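Fold sample X.
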Amino acid sequence: MKAFMDKDFLLDTATARRLYHDYAAGLPIIDYHCHIPPQEIYEDRRFENITQVWLGGRQVAADGSVSYFGDHYKWRVMRSNGVPEDYITGDKPDRERFQKFAESLEMAIGNPMYTWCHLELKKYFGYEGVLNADTAEEVWNLCNDKLQNDPNMTVRGLIRQSNVAMVGTTDDPVDTLEWHKKIAEDPSIEVVVAPSFRPDKALNIHKAGFVEYIHKLEETVGRKFACADCVVKALEERLAFFVSMGCRAADHGLDYVPFVDDADLATAAFKKAMAGEEVSKQERDAYITHLLIACAKMYKKYGVVMQVHYSCLRNPNARMFKRLGADTGFDMIAVTDASVTLSSLLSKLDETDECPKTILYSLNPSDFDMLGTMIGSFQGDEVPGKIQLGSAWWFCDTNDGMYQQMRTLARLGLLGNFIGMLTDSRSFLSYTRHELFRRLMCNLVGEWVENGQYPNDEKSLKKIVEGISYYNAKRYFGL
């Protein structure tokens, strides 16, 4: 029987162990897509206890408005264990909330959350044991003592410990990027903290708050909009500002990928929405398509990477959406068909050589093979792997999901040019997800070598493993 999560955890062969320990483990991390607040990096926040780091929860703003910020993965684990919502997003004491999580984690055999939590406890807190209902008090005291007293356990300290070279945050076009500016001007902050352009609210013409958001964008650029291209022009102005602040990537989170290429219909849809009139699905899709094409052309012009995340069904639980709002851990995988629409989008951009470097992520693993063949149809010579099959995203971010994504890319493309993992996280302890990914990647490569499917060529293996772990992303994002 193997020891629980020892130094050779998930490394099943001698080749895998050599590749991980000699080449992958020590390389810096490029976390090019996450949701951590840049303000907390600048202010070098120190967390009071492990619950604040792991669970987050209910936040009350100065104006009395309530929002929720934390790790949705952990919230779902607790809900699956029948924990009352007051202990998850409510105002129960942090110690009690941690206890409920520890009790839930004990039941999470096979869940990636079990692995992530124990990797974090081991790396950042030196805890070699197991977190469960009985050890929760011991772990609570150990973690809180380090968080409160260890000089290396502030936000910046955690980033340094994790050997992070770049953090790509997620930022709205109307954001002033105040905290990014302060970070850039502070010579004591060595990590690159790059804003990422996330214009979803300007595209979501069919969702609540669209009109109010457009007015915010108008206020930001100092003029009123009369058409869809007015929105496009404003977004380009904001993108230029983001690029001046170090932006390297943009991101579009889509429920599904539309393609109705009709500029006149797009403007008609915009005018109807701004007048408070209902917009049909055809009109909605025309507007979103028009902005997607325009944004992609901007990204090519400014050298920005385009990320497209799709196939998520948001807020299916109407009761909990009404109670807590969006982004509180109630989303699910959607079944959509993006084969024609997404390829049509890429083809439209390719016709005029305006397709940017693009990363495609589907929340539905059934799409992996389709995307794996799609990316091979639109590659370019400006960088190896210009169009990427994105890492296993969200619910696919499991051992099986990561293996499936890598096997698909290897079968249908070039795994050696893959830009690797990201955290997509709201926690400063989540960098161990890169460790887990690197272990799985080395194990997969090691398996192929020991099965005689790839030669035991140290020079080539080193190039592949180091590339996927770090150097491919460094090249891709121009670091």
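Fold sample Y, listed below.
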Amino acid sequence: MLKDIKIEEVENIAIAAVPIVNENLYTEWQVHLINLKNTPITGVIVSSQGYGNRNGEEVKTSQLRHFIDTVEPQSHILIEPMIDDVVTLN
């Protein structure tokens, strides 16, 4: 069943994590989905989870899923903010 599902290669879509210093002078990261296409993209599902080692211990964040209805051509949309501690994870 899964072998029957055709997964097409994704092109002209990017993800950017942008550091922003907030009003408390604390760095938070804003993760954006960027549509580099000349057409809108619709029905986007983004799944994220952090994992890695910190101080010799395995660390794993909860899994987050976001549904984005439409991203207009040549534009971007905020997916989620990330705290500075999570940036060091995969």
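Sample Y note: The two ends are 30 Å apart (CA to CA).
Also: The chain has no helices and seven strands.
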